[in-house]
Amino acid sequence: MKILSQILDHKIVAILRGMPPKEIMRIAGALYDGGIRILEITLNSEDALSLIEQLSHTFKYRLLIGAGTVLNTSDAANAIDAGAAFLISPSLDIGVIKITKDAGLVSIPGAYTATEILTAHNNGADIVKVFPAPDAAYIKNILAPLSHIRVMPTGGVDAGNIKAFAVAGAVAFGIGGALVNSKTIVDENYFSALKDRAEKLITALNG
Question: What is the pTM of this model?
């Protein structure tokens, strides 16, 4: 699947939660300039569905746009209609996995324990979002018996530890506040700093 291949190739999913809608295009542009190729717009953000639609159109063939914080099948259906290429959840809902897969999209449900992670995988998840991900050692321990499952640690991943998570076996990484912080004032300096953070994150991963 092309969408899944793109995620596995580029690995870093930038999470945009609660960012000012009027600045989203410039934020996406700065992330793109910094080397990011995958964006997640969380559904609990203002105008999330319209932003997914706009970004998918504006950055077509350049950025892969998906929906995050997909909590139920209604959320999933709305995100699919808006043009999301992948759906990410903080929790495990088998109905959400099914509707996502039926639409031919990539399913990334959230799970934490070995039982939840295996259940997600057995029900069709392409990648399992391990959330929260306490540290790389936890990922290594989880993957010892579950090495056939692709996992994406999210929550607490940054430039200082992303390489350790990769070495532990993670195939992708959800990055929120360490990259796009909704509590920071968005001004001209913000965009250049965002580009720099993106570049440092990619360098840390590939170094």
Answer: 0.97
